[in-house]
Amino acid sequence: MILAHYNYWVVVLLMMIGIYTIMAHGNLVKKLLGLTVFQTSVFLMFISLGKIEGATAPILTTDGATYSNPLPHVLILTAIVVGVATTAVGLALVVRIHEAFKTIEEHEAIRQEQESGRT
After folding, report:
1. What's CA 63's distance to the chain center, in Å?
2. pLDDT, tens digit, for every residue of 23-50?
3. How far apart are CA 92 and CA 52, in angstroms?
4. Rounded to whole angstroms, how far apart are CA atoms 39 and 34?
5. Taking Cα atoms as reference points, which of 45, 55, 52, 56 lies closest to residue 79?
6. Where are the alpha helices (DSSP H) in 51-105?
7. In angstroms, rounded to a whole number, what is the distance separating the alpha carbons of residues 110 and 39?
8. Are 53 and 7 in contact (CB under 8 A)?
9. Are the CB atoms for 28 and 107 separated by under 8 Å?
10. Mean per-residue pLDDT for 88-106?
11. How far apart are the first and last CA of the chain?
12. Average per-residue pLDDT in the chain?
């Protein structure tokens, strides 16, 4: 039973790795990588849920075949584009933070912000 649903175990493992990376590291680039890993796990989950074993592509024929819904796969393609754009904006923000504070460590940037009195 466990091996039959290995894709769901991979999803859970990737989710845990992504969440741990986001919460445990102060480096902003590592946080973005953790977010990307977490997004990938969500993509895999939706693709796994949308797959029907033994189903065919939804092409109309006269026989009573089982069809697999293409909507989850199309939505994931859109989510991948949004994820890439989000990562690009996040990396641009990290560059700006590095220019302003000369660090990409979250706690150091917050400390410098508090010391300088900027809010």
Report:
1. 39
2. 999 999 999 999 999 999 999 999 888 8
3. 40
4. 9
5. 45
6. 71-101
7. 26
8. no
9. no
10. 96
11. 54
12. 89
The CB-side HSE value for 58 (13 A sphere, CA atoms) comes to: 8
CA pair distance 11, 116, nearest whole angstrom: 43
Q: What share of the chain is helix, strand, coil (3-state, %, to 5)?
A: 75, 5, 25
Q: How far apart are CA 30 and CA 20, in angstroms?
A: 11
Residue of 22, 93, 102 lying closest to 113 (CA atoms) = 102
- What is the mean predicted confidence (pLDDT) over 102-111? 93
Contact between residue 44 and residue 79 where contact means Cβ atoms under 8 Å apart: no
Distances (CA, A) of 59 to 64, 69, 74, 75: 11, 11, 16, 19
Tokens of 54: 């033994």
Instruction: Supply the pLDDT for residue 118.
Output: 63
Q: What is the pTM of this model?
A: 0.84
Tell whether the model's pLDDT for residue 11 goes beyond 60: yes
